[in-house]
Amino acid sequence: MSSTLTVHGMDGIAALDGKDLGHSSWWEVTQELIDTYAGVSGDHQWIHTDTARAQAGPYGRTIAHGYMILSWGIPMFAELLQVTGVGRALNYGVNKVRFPAPVPVGSRVRLHAAVASVEPVAHGGMRMTRSFTFELEGSAKPACVAESLTHFYP
User: Fold this and answer.
1) Which of 38, 75, 129, 147 could form a disulfide with 116 if both were Cys (CB 3.0 to 4.6 A apart)?
2) Contacts by 83-88 with C-beta closer than 8 Å and gap 24+?
3) What distance in Å separates the CA atoms of residue 95 and residue 84, rounded to the nearest whole number?
4) DSSP bridge partners of 134
5) Nearest 5 degrees, angle CA 43-CA 151-CA 2?
6) Domains of the chain as residue ranges with CATH
7) Of the candidates 45, 44, 134, 63, the residue with the CA atom closest to the CA atom of residue 102
8) Can you give the pTM of this predicted structure?
């Protein structure tokens, strides 16, 4: 795992433009986490929650919801970067989301993140576009790739 970088204020955010932030720790995908996500999201498709049926399915076991893995971007990114001295940070959106590889239960995933760009927005804010690659241990293909956009305001 990379060490956590801390930046202060809008100038600190601007200085991150183009910076590779490294990797988070590995997170294990458990059936309990999958079932909890299914309960919250309402997505109870058998490939995620029916362990007996999934054994005979295409992956030999249950797989994580793609959006569950994507949702890990927030806490995994917090392992890599802390921003202090701003009034607020707001999720602005997500671009180019893809799920190239299934994530079977028992797998481990980590985030590789980089700051793709930082640009000014209205009201003195800054938009940080972050490149997220969720690496799947032992796989040449990532579990998920996406651009995550956050607005920071003084």
Assistant:
1) 129
2) 83/6, 83/7, 83/8, 83/12, 83/13, 83/152, 84/6, 84/7, 84/8, 84/9, 85/8, 85/9, 85/12, 86/9, 86/10, 86/13, 86/152, 86/153, 86/154, 87/153, 87/154, 88/152, 88/153
3) 25
4) 111, 144
5) 75
6) 5-153 (3.10.129.10)
7) 63
8) 0.95
d(CA 148, CA 90): 11
φ, ψ at 133 (rounded to 5°): -125, 115
**Per-residue confidence of the chain (154 residues) as pLDDT tens digits?**
778 999 999 999 999 999 999 999 999 999 999 999 999 999 999 999 999 999 999 999 999 999 999 999 999 999 999 999 999 999 999 999 999 999 999 999 999 999 999 999 999 999 999 999 999 999 999 999 999 999 999 9
The first and second tokens of residue 136, run together, are 């799947």
